[in-house]
Amino acid sequence: MASFASRRFYRVALAGACVAAALVAADAALPAASAVPSPPPGSSHRATTAAAAPFADWDTYHGNRQRTGYAPTLKPVAQTPASVWNLTLDGAVYGSPVIVQGGLKIVATENNTVYRISGNRVIWSHHLGIPVPLASLPCGNIDPLGITGTPAYDRTTHTVVVVSELANPIRHVAVGLDPVTGVQRWYRNVDVAAAGIIPKAMQQRGALLVSGRRVYIPYGGLTGDCSSYKGSVIGVDLDHPTSAALWKFVVPTAREAGIWAPPGPSENPGGGLLVAVGNGASTTSGPYDYSDSVLRIAYQQIRDSFSPSTWRTDNQADLDLGSQGPAIVGSRVFIAGKSGTTYVLSRSHLGGIGGEVTQRTDLNCHSFGGTAVLGNVVYVPCTDGLRAIRIEASGFMTPLWHAPSNINGSPVIGGGRVWVLDTGAGRLHLLSPSSGADLLSLAVGSVTRFATPALYANAVFVGTTSGIRAFNW
Q1: How do beta strands 352-353 and 301-307 pair?
Q2: Where do the domains of the chain lie?
């Protein structure tokens, strides 16, 4: 397969492409669209700029670099949201949509295509190449495997960054796109060059993060924990994306310890990145390998860490912390993971092995995905239902409410509601933040396990297994 540099790119102008409206209310007037076929590799349909709007962008996973999932400028929900469009794209959407530059809606599929959407229309699409069929991988559960992690937006260069997994040979490539036109600005191979790692065993599932003039790209393994992988983070210099040396961090384990949770890294307000790390190679013997942990990493090194005192047995039983992104709650960090035990850590000193501020085993929260945070309350996606937990000044965890077991997706907050998916039934629930009362549910269709809504202006957007759906009010 030809390299990106040698490909010929076709940029076809969309006849009659118009200025995109910033509010979804304007989008609702557009007619329905049919399924969109995959454009050829390297293609980019062109469009014009979007109008500005007085609403906060949702330009990364859960809206900001701390992954709080809170949309402070979302219009209050005073009426039942209406389904305004349901657009079929060329593949499943695993990451969250992002909304940038005052209303440009960007979404990426597992078929390696990035789209800009306005209403129920595609303004541009850019196909990055052939995704990897599951049959070519040593294990896994996504077929094909293309763009999985949520894109991120760089406000300085006005660039959307995605990471694509490409076939023949299997490799990971970061691509910077102009969100207005879809034109490719740069690309770079971002495979992790380290002993004990092969590209086809690495999966880029976690969301990308723009912080400190780099975009950070987390890696874990495929479902099944097969072959040779290690949890890693790669950083690309956004001012010199094709020439500057890659920033690289690899968990110091013999194998595994993936950084795979859907939120990806969070920016620590005191500096560095916070990541959750999965089960590693050390179980009954061997040195501590920083698996089953929360790490603060900076300058390509571990600067602080926490692991439960049970980290060895957690590793043996696959009951690690790696399934949930760390939640920043003021001076504290909340983490749960797979074991059912919840922990509160000091953000200034994570505590090392067994050094949590508090822990609770009675909440029995097995957490997968991303949290939302509003004030000192964290909304946690537990497998037996979403929980609201208040983090007291002492670090004590006070449970406030517990949603039914089917309402267990990764939540976001805005407009006076908690928005959370029942991923099994394909329904979006609107809950009261204070009581957890289920105020309304909306049919969205088939979604992936870690799907999470994006909030902007007077609308909510949900990626589905066939495209993207929107509601407004």
Answers
A1: parallel
A2: 24-472
> What does pLDDT average to over the chain?
91
- Measured between alpha carbons, how far is 453 from 142 in angstroms, rounded to an integer? 20
Give the integer Cα–Cα distance in Å for 208 and 161: 8
pLDDT at 5: 37
Residues whose CB falls within 8 Å of the CB of residue 393, separated by 6 or more in sequence, listed in order: none
Pick the CATH number of 24-472 from 2.140.10.10, 3.60.140.10, 3.90.1150.30, 2.40.50.140: 2.140.10.10
> Helix, strand, coil % (nearest 5) of the chain?
5, 40, 55
Coil/strand/helix, residue 453: coil
pLDDT above 50 (res 288) = yes
CA gap 456, 99 in Å, rounded? 7
Q: How far apart are CA 103 and CA 365, in angstroms?
A: 36
Which CA distances in Å does 139 have to 15, 168, 412, 455? 43, 17, 31, 34
DSSP lists the bridge partners of residue 237 as 214
Exposure b/e, 413-441, CB count within 10 A at least 16 = b: bbbebbbbbbbeebbbbbbebeebeeeeb
Concatenated DSSP letters of 427-446: EEEEE-TTT--EEEEEE---
Question: Of the ranges 41-45, 99-103, 356-360, 411-415, which one carries the lowest mean pLDDT score?
Answer: 41-45
State phi, psi for 200 to the nearest 5 degrees. -70, -10
Q: How far apart are CA 308 and CA 343, in angstroms?
A: 9
In 445-459, which positions are buried (b, 16+ CB within 10 angstroms) versus exposed (e)?
Answer: eebbebbbbbbbbbb
Query: What is d(CA 346, CA 329) in angstroms, rounded to the nearest whole number?
Result: 10
Question: Rounded mean pLDDT of 380-397?
Answer: 99
What are 44-64's pLDDT values in tens digits? 444 444 444 589 999 999 999
**Model confidence pLDDT, tens digit, residues 184-225:** 999 999 999 999 999 999 999 999 999 999 999 999 999 999
Q: Any idea what DSSP says for residue 37?
A: P
The CA distances from residue 364 to 115, 317, 402, in Å, are 40, 16, 11
* Higher pLDDT, residue 38 or 323: 323
Of 423, 410, 348, the residue nearest 378 (C-alpha): 410
SS3 state at 60: coil
Tokens of 344: 């509160």
Q: Are 63 and 207 in contact (CB under 8 A)?
A: no
Residues contacting residue 344 through CB under 8 Å, at least 6 positions apart: 329, 332, 333, 334, 356, 357, 358, 359, 391, 395, 396, 397
Report pLDDT for 282: 83
